[in-house]
Amino acid sequence: MEEKVIVVEDLRREFVLSKDGKRKTALDGISFDVNRGEIFGILGHNNAGKTTLIKILTTLLLPTSGKAEVLGLDVYPRKNEKPIRRRINVVMGGERGLYYRLTARQNMKFFADLYGIPKKTQHELIEDLLELVKLTPAADQRVENFSRGMKQRLHIAKALVNDPEILFLDEPTIGMDPEITRDVIALVRKLAVDGTTILLTTHHMREAEALCDRVAIMASGKIVAMGTLSELKEMAADASIVRITTVMDPYAVTLLMEDMEGISSVKTELVSGRYVTSVGVEDGRAMFDRLNTMFDGFDIRGIEYDDPTLEDAYLHILGGEGDSY
Amino acid sequence: MHDPQWIIPGIVAPFLFTLVMLMIQQDSDGPLVLRAILGGGVLGMWGNTIFKSSESIMYDRRNGTLEPIMAALAGLNDVIIGRSLWNALVGMLNGLLVLVVAESMFDANVRIADPPLFLVCLLLTLLSLAAVGMLFSALFVYTRRGHMLSSMLEYPIYVLSGALVPVMLLPEAARYASFLLAPSWGVDAMNMAADVTYTHSITGGVFINLAMLAILAVSYYFIATALLIKIERDIRRDGTAVRF
Amino acid sequence: MKRFRLRFVSRDTFARNVRASFSLSVRNTFETTPKWMWIAHILLTSFFSMLMFALIASYVGNPEVTVPYVVIGNAVQTVSFTTLRSIAEIPNREKHTGTLPPLMAAPSNLFEVFFGMALFNIFAGLVSATAGLMYAVLVFGVDFSAANVPLLALIIVMTSMSMTGLGMTIGGVGLHLRTATILSNITSYVGIVLCGVNFPVSYLPQWAQALSATHPLTYAVAATRGAVGGMSLAELWVPVSIMAFLGLFFLLFSMLFFKYFEEKSKKQGTLELF
């Protein structure tokens, strides 16, 4: 049996919003496990509760109720804080959270000290980590001169100083250009191959699809679906997807389609100057001709069936709840 | 920044200095009380000017609004003139607050000998402070250590301003430095207008003082403008505005 | 690419965390500010603050508040600016760089990190107090012929240390109330009125005298005046030990406070607000 390094059962977290006791439920009784060595993705829109979950698991926030165990240790008691923190790490990312007047190496060194890395091994460790995130040439530059992507890579390197058994990544590629996103994804994959368990939150379907062994889809503090990529796609499989590429924006038609019988989801994306409309339908063959006619006025350049992607599955599962991102 | 930090140099510190002077004096009457209370007001105006001229540019650096300001048609110069005037005005309100609180707290008997003339001196001092503010802002655009520099300037300027202790009673070297500050002439003039027994005036004539003030303030204005033009060019060349 | 597996768990120690944060804060200070400017700031500020009050004292002419009286008082008061105020600013500074969350996520505790960062400011306090006393002798002509110099040195060191405790407490409370800068400034400025720096504490109303009794600076100033006048430790042990006690008390208080702060932000999820 696989070792479960994260066990969450019926976890709830509420926040008091104002003095008169108004509360907001950020996590509404969620349950899941993560196995050692797995890349587990939490997928959801903003405010779905992803960051709250990460904070609870990294001992930065206490749950309101429910169970949360990390590496077999309950996150509630104060005495478990340090033992957990020593064995995990977290990338909260963003522009802040680094000493911007100091160099990358100095930042690394400070956190290596705080995580109790012996002086003897620090030097080599920091060199290796900076190389891993491709920051060696910039190691002695001040962080304030770094680009966003460089800062993010430094955040990741910093989070690896204690060689964490579990690495938590909160939206690791948010606001990054595609090239850096690719780098970060490759890096995360490499860490997983080396045996690090990874829990990441994201709202990028492609990122989750490229990385995760299993995914939980969250909405409004609840897990609405969970499983391996193929399992999730399976859930959407009763709906086939028809993709229609048009020259003109088929907005007028898609608006009408929302209420039509037999159509589960509609989404239009602009891809290299063409409008690609993905229509989730119950029976593709029956709808094919009908859709062809409906889109006729928009100068169709292609129409095809496709297996559902994670994105399709996501839209299907969230149904009315998920508008296009 | 959440903290309204300007209240420290603008209100708290000047008020405490006034308090110290009044406590040392142990008497709520006489010309020294007038000096302590007026002096606190002047320090408030000065403190505000020093602080704001560094803070506003630091704020723009942090917020990344320095570049949009430079890109705007109005340019750095106009924005800084506007801000300096506004800051001087706020400074006067701080000064008034210090004055009112100190006066009511000590139940001091403060009478202004020639109120209209006093008011004229006050307004001109205010304008000269705006010119100082411009000059400092221009210098602070250049450096990322505006805060450090401004806090370094605080005490020397408190001494040189002639606010609590008349300029003519300063050690000789300090006195000459003080003559270079336009507002010092204004403060001296205010003292003459407020107190007929004031014997430490620099020139003995309010209008000579005001003329000196005007000459200095106008030169600040021109120096600041020249500096800002140069700075704008330098920043464009070196691209240092985006960092903070 | 070399693999970097370590798979070990090292005990974090107080000494290590303090040392790491100390060197970080030294680096951070001198990356921001060139050394000459840092020194110049201390030297200028202490000189002009002494000059200002010396001028006021001589202008007002109260026989009890002489120039030497305020000069010594302000030489000690400069520690309050360089140590107390800077230390109280530390948590706030971390908040602004956004490094509070990663510091809290690390196994080290906040108090140790902040204490390490504060150590450097003790040194700064020593520099400013020494400079202040030098000015007193060389510029303001205060008579040091009878001074008990070793005791003076001890008092200055203890002053800097006791200000650390107060600074840490104010920094913690300020972080909590989100008014750190104002609070630290007010506390350091209020010393010029409250602590017998510029006039005897007995001039103050009763309630203010009670406040001044809780401020380590009050005892630091009194002890320094005594040592300059040639008194011995036996004669000055009361203010000296009260100062030490207050310093320790505030340090302990801040330690508990940071624990409480960590717990509270964990419970209420207020971490990102700070």
Domain unit count of chain B: 1
Helix count from the secondary structure assignment of chain C: 10
Mean pLDDT of chain C: 88
What is the average per-residue confidence, as pLDDT of chain B, rounded to a whole number?
83
Low-confidence stretches of chain C: 1-9
Report on this structure.
The complex is a heterotrimer of chains A (325), B (244) and C (274). By secondary structure, chain A is an alpha/beta fold. Helix content of chain A is 34%, strand content 30%. Chain B has helices at residues 7-25, 31-63, 66-71, 75-106, 115-142, 146-160, 172-179, 182-194, 206-238. Chain B is globular. In chain B, 52% of the residues are buried. Chain C has one domain (11-268). In chain C, helix 3 packs parallel to helix 6, helix 6 packs antiparallel against helix 7 and helix 9 (216-228) packs antiparallel against helix 10. The longest helix of chain C is centred in the C-terminal third of the chain and has 36 residues, at 233-268. Chain C starts with 13 loop residues before the first helix and ends in a 6-residue tail after the last helix. Chains in contact: A-C, B-C. Chain A binds chain C through residues 13, 15-16, 52, 55, 58-62, 78, 81-82, 85-87, 89-90, 92, 94-102, 106, 109-111, 113-118, 121, 124-125, 128-129, 131-132, 142, 158, 160, 163, 194, and chain C through 1-7, 9-13, 16-17, 19-21, 24, 27-28, 31-32, 97-99, 101-108, 113, 263, 266-269, 271.
Task: Write a concise keyword list for the protein shown above.
heterotrimer, A: 325 residues, 11 helices, C: 274 residues, mainly alpha
Quick description:
The complex is a heterotrimer of chains A (325), B (244) and C (274). Chain B has 244 residues and is mostly helical. Chain B has helices spanning 7-25, 31-63, 66-71, 75-106, 115-142, 146-160, 172-179, 182-194, 206-238.
List the topology elements.
The complex is a heterotrimer of chains A (325), B (244) and C (274).
Chain A: E1 4-16, E2 23-35, E3 39-43, H1 50-57, E4 65-70, E5 73-74, H2 81-87, E6 88-91, H3 104-114, H4 119-132, H5 148-159, E7 166-170, H6 178-193, E8 197-202, H7 205-211, E9 214-219, E10 222-228, H8 229-235, E11 240-246, H9 251-257, E12 263-271, E13 274-281, H10 284-294, E14 300-306, H11 310-318
Parallel strand pairs in A: 3-8, 3-9, 6-7, 7-8
Antiparallel strand pairs in A: 1-2, 1-4, 4-5, 9-10, 11-13, 11-14, 12-13
Helix pairs in contact in A: 3-4, 8-11
Chain B: H1 7-25, H2 31-63, H3 66-71, H4 75-106, H5 115-142, H6 146-160, H7 172-179, H8 182-194, H9 206-238
Helix pairs in contact in B: 1-2, 1-4, 2-4, 2-5, 2-6, 4-5, 5-8, 5-9, 8-9
Chain C: H1 14-32, H2 35-60, H3 67-97, H4 100-105, H5 110-138, H6 149-177, H7 180-194, H8 206-212, H9 216-228, H10 233-268
Helix pairs in contact in C: 1-5, 2-3, 2-5, 3-5, 3-6, 3-7, 3-9, 5-6, 6-7, 6-9, 6-10, 9-10
